[in-house]
Amino acid sequence: MIAEAGLAALWLAFALALLQLGLGVAGLTGGRDVLLGAVRPVAVVQGLLTAIAFVMLIWLFLRSDMSVELVALNSHSDKPWLYKFAGTWGNHEGSMLLWVAVLAFAGAAVALFERRLDERTLMATLAAQAFIGIGFYAFLLFSSNPFTRLDPAPAQGQGLNPLLQDPGLAFHPPTLYFGYVGLSIAFSFAVGALVTRDVGADFARAMRPWVLISWVFLTLGITAGSYWAYYELGWGGWWFWDPVENASLMPWLAATALLHSVTVLATRDGLRAWTVMLAVVAFSMSMVGTFLVRSGILTSVHAFAVDPTRGSFILALLVIYIGGAMALYGFRVGTVREGSTFEAVSREGALVANNLLLSAILGIVLIGTLYPLGVEAVTGDKLSVGPPYFNAAAGPLALILVAIMAVGPLLKWRRDTLKPLAKRLALPILITALALAAVLAMAPGIGIFPLLGLVLALGVGAASVAPLWKRNLRRTPLFTYGMVIAHLGIAVSLAGMACESAFTKETLVAARLGETEHVGPFAVRLDGVAPIAGPNWTALEATLTVTRGDGKPFILKPEARMFPSPPTETSEAAIKTVFDGQLYTVLGKADEQGRWQLRLWWKPWVTLIWLGGVLIALGGLLSLIGHMRRERKLLDRKLYG
Amino acid sequence: MKAKHQRLTLGVVALVAIIGAALLAMSALKDQAAYFYSPADVKRTRIEPGKAVRLGGMVADKSIVRQPDGVTIRFVVADGADTVPVVFKGIVPDLFKENSGVVAEGRFDAGGTFIADNILAKHDERYMPPQLEGDKHKTGKVE
Prior knowledge:
The complex is a heterodimer. Helix content of chain A is about 65%, strand content about 10%. By secondary structure, chain A is α+β, with helices and mostly antiparallel strands. Chain A has four domains: about 1-165, no CATH class; about 200-325 and about 345-415, no CATH class; about 415-495 and about 610-640, no CATH class; about 505-605. In chain B, about 30% of the residues are buried. Chain B is α+β, with helices and mostly antiparallel strands. Chain B has a five-stranded mixed barrel with strand order 2-4-5-7-6. Residues about 125-143 of chain B have low confidence and may be disordered. Chains A and B meet through helix 12, strand 1, helix 13, strand 2 and strand 8 of A and helix 1 and strand 1 of B. Strand 1 (about 385) of chain A pairs antiparallel with strand 1 (about 35) of chain B. Chain A: Pfam families: CcmF_C (PF16327), Cytochrom_C_asm (PF01578). Chain A: It is found in: Cell inner membrane.
């Protein structure tokens, strides 16, 4: 019954989405406000119904109900409850249901909380959100039904991909989806504003919190995904330029650009057409990413071996939504009045540079990600585009972008001159110069990218706090702190990346029991290898005793795990975090002479990469709270005079 | 500056940036895209030593030889028509074995030996590199 209830909820939500679209369109064209009044409650109920469907699926997974095909194919009753729970979205249908649930939830949140947007624009927005929903409900119901029954029910399920059996699965996909799909709100806002010709500063102020919150989730989701890949895959890398990673990076780049341009629109009423464009592009990138990941054209741990007809279905949705929004944009952009102007040397000018660079990086990532697919479709040649391309093409632009980030916040809106700027930048420039000298003196052999990265990180770190210089810190608004912390986070993350690529030490050996190997400042002794058993796996576990100089020794236990269902081996790295980096150890295979392969990495300051990511998200959160406080104050003033 | 002029200027700047990025991307792709070759392709086309490529095929029977250092292996990739010798230093994936599919990433040295930086093996029944699957991947469910 639970599966049927879930399916019924999903069908009802689908019907309500149709109703929501119909009401919105009829109300807007006929000008009947009665119809418009019904849109909000319909959106809320639609969100609730999808949430119910999603909870039903979780319940089925928790109970290991093998009469449901999805559970039987992807779960196993031996699994710990956390993986039964998180396994709900560790498969194609379940993750699409999560996607749709977040979409409907976002629509419901807008219906409940959005009070600043012009009422007619809001209705157009909710109608657009329902229109997106309709396509994805249809996709779920007609080609990816998560509630299909299996008769007869098997006695046991086939289990979850062991690489996904990690607490990361409980956190990374939902966070990422909230960001990814949350951007649908910006998309629908843009469509709504184009329909009612209502693009202006008020529109931007209403849209900004939604963009910010999605962006915070997206940042956290990417950061978590990066750390998860780092410790779970056992390859010691934190970013592989895998198409699936790019699929999450592209919406982030677009959303970051949008976040900055929406500020120009909100504060100065400039960049109107461009901001609307970015709002459309950001969610379009989310949909492109969904297509790449969910269509089965890529192979990775994310692509759950799916039926290829689904790819065509998502592709059709993509064409309809992106094409439709772009066509609307083309027709209506001429009617968007020009906003206010500004000089090249101004805050707006720097933000335009930020937007162009982010868009250029986005273009480079998009081309690199789609190129292999295009070539294979046209010529049949198989090729892969990897880190060398992305680093060479996007790296220099990213460094320029970071340099501009240091300067931008110190410029005045509308018009500024370079002289006072030079004064405010004097200290950061001095720090940059000292850093350059210090790095060249202490680490003369490091490559040009790590060198520039490290030096820029130090200079930009100093410059990013410069906007607080000589300000009354208690009267500084929260969103200024948010900006400072987010920019500082970029510098921290950049420093981590540069250190990781410049100073990582690696040792790869076959060690006998009792032998001591060295990596960086550590001495690692292999004490023994013993079999152990977990809830649904067995493993070989090495015991490593590690000492650093005269420090107290500590033990690390990397494992090689065997999962019986499905039969898979995974390597569980053992990682020791110290204040200045991480020691990363992987156990390999035994050879005939009884030696064990050990792979040891010493990665100085690598943790800064993810610490920076968390700071960036925290900055976004502070900025969100700051803006919402101010908006409430303005709203109160408007209402009560 | 008039608003109209400003919009025009911004439009032109954006266009230049987009074209510039596309050109940068295209030139980088030309140098950096790693093509996928089977041993038969390797025989047919001359691949420059040092260029990043991917090599795919089956690990030939009884070809895996462990080197004395315990972490380097030599093996032969075959596709029924031709064979290519490969050297790899590292921990091989769990499902890497003889008579099983493999994709190696790396480059050729001057002597025609493939120096692999990375080895991808068929992960399990449900997660398979499409290069190994070929037509099966396109026609239906991967089993």
